[in-house]
């Protein structure tokens, strides 16, 4: 299974929703909080091309945000994409 990396902030409801889905499916993930860390947020934005959170990667493949993760799940492609 690919490594799941999710950039988050503590107050973001979309971050909570994305993490909740991953937890429900028992998919382990590494969370990187960008709260109060401008450099981490800048690194995330450079990789994703976006400054919004959450930003989610499966290994080096950028998945997108919360809506993108849920679309993968609802289409039945989430587990296949994870390998």
CATH topology: Glutaredoxin
**Whole-number mean pLDDT:** 96
**In CATH, what is the class?**
Alpha Beta
Q: Percent of residues in helical segments?
A: 40-55%
Total beta-strand segments: 4
The major beta sheet can be summarized as:
4 strands, mixed
Q: Can you tell me the residue ranges where pLDDT is under 50 for at least 5 consecutive residues?
A: none
Outline the secondary-structure elements.
Layout: E1 4-8, H1 13-24, E2 30-33, H2 38-48, E3 55-58, E4 61-64, H3 66-74, H4 78-82
Parallel strand pairs: 1-2
Antiparallel strand pairs: 1-3, 3-4
Helix pairs in contact: 1-3
Detailed description of the structure:
The protein has 83 residues and is of the alpha+beta class. It has a single domain (4-82), classed as 3-Layer(aba) Sandwich (Glutaredoxin). The protein contains four helices and four strands; from the N terminus they run βαβαββαα. The protein has a four-stranded mixed β-sheet with strand order 2-1-3-4, with helices on both faces. A hairpin with a 2-residue loop joins strand 3 (55-58) and strand 4 (61-64). The chain starts with a strand and ends with a helix. The model has no long low-confidence stretch (mean pLDDT 96).
Features:
83 residues, alpha+beta, four-stranded mixed beta sheet, globular
Brief digest:
The chain has 83 residues and is an alpha+beta fold. It has helices at residues 13-24, 38-48, 66-74, 78-82, and strands spanning 4-8, 30-33, 55-58, 61-64.
């Amino acid at each position: 299974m690919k490594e799941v990396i999710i950039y988050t902030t503590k107050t973001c409801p979309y971050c909570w929703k994305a993490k909740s889905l991953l937890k429900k499916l028992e998919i382990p993930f590494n969370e990187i909080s960008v709260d109060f860390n401008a450099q981490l947020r800048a690194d995330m934005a450079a990789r994703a091309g976006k400054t919004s959170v959450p930003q989610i990667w499966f290994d080096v493949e950028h998945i997108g945000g919360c809506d993108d993760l849920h679309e993968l799940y609802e289409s039945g492609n989430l587990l296949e994409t994870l390998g």
